[in-house]
Amino acid sequence: MNKPFAIAIHGGAGTILHAQMTDEIQRAIEQALDQAVSQSHQLLAQGGSAVDAVVCAVRILEDSPHFNAGKGSVLTAKEMVEMDAAVMSGEHRQVGSVAGVRHIKNPVQLAKDVMQQSEHVMLIGEGAEEFAAKLGYDYTEQDYFFTDRRYEQLLAMKAEGTTALSESRYPDDHKFGTVGAVALDQDGNLAAATSTGGITNKQFGRVGDSPIIGAGTYAENHNVAISATGMGEAFIRCCVASDIAARMRYLREDVHTACTAVIQGEVKNLGGEGGVIAIDRSGEIHFGMNCEGMYRSCIDIHGKKQIKIYADEV
Q1: Is 37 annotated as contributing to ligand binding?
Q2: What is the pTM of this model?
Q3: What pLDDT sits at residue 21?
Q4: Is 229 annotated as a binding-site member?
């Protein structure tokens, strides 16, 4: 008998404006989502692990300039990229996380290697890059990550003295840039991965929720895997991913009820905006958001594929 497997991915949530979404931009975003979800699903279909599937999906999104992770990362106040990522395996709750890396093409891959090839859970900054060098990673110059779009965003925010745009040229400049994936494999294992470039014009080595286990990333076999995207500080304060998992574990809430309770409840009450993707032990998928949109896609246990952008798409 075939065992269920499924995957869901996201490319960030927030204010995504219909009026500024061109056909060209929408096609490019949807193509990247399609490639990520399709290739990772194929890996699962061939018996691959949930961990490998979520890393595969996130790597593809990191390689696209259309998402705030890897190649498309936003710029800090010092006109550099500082990227964070995490991977969690639900089987033994193994974790790998990196923060503040500047010269790693695919931070999610490094997070996986921290999980599988080190004694540690989280590595940051220069230390994380020293670990990467020891494993033979290529040193990626900052020029690789630089895009005109992100530079324009930085200049606009510096002019306003903020870390949030009041006006934008792009449909998603008010979106919280994170990419992530959750998966269930044929062995019944769950996994989650999240990667981000952080926030534009950030200072002081700020780190958001993406690499924080229990905030932006979490996976627990026989329960749920979660990847979040939103106002990182609010998601950390609410322990979003951990809270969803706890509601399912102790209150026996289903994945839809638990996600909705957290995203539309405590997070929203604190002024936090964003969303989550989640998959439970049976492969049931949930996309939850309290904002206007989230780049998202999935292939469920029946092989049905969906690619959506706006909150009002059912």
Answers
A1: no
A2: 0.93
A3: 82
A4: yes
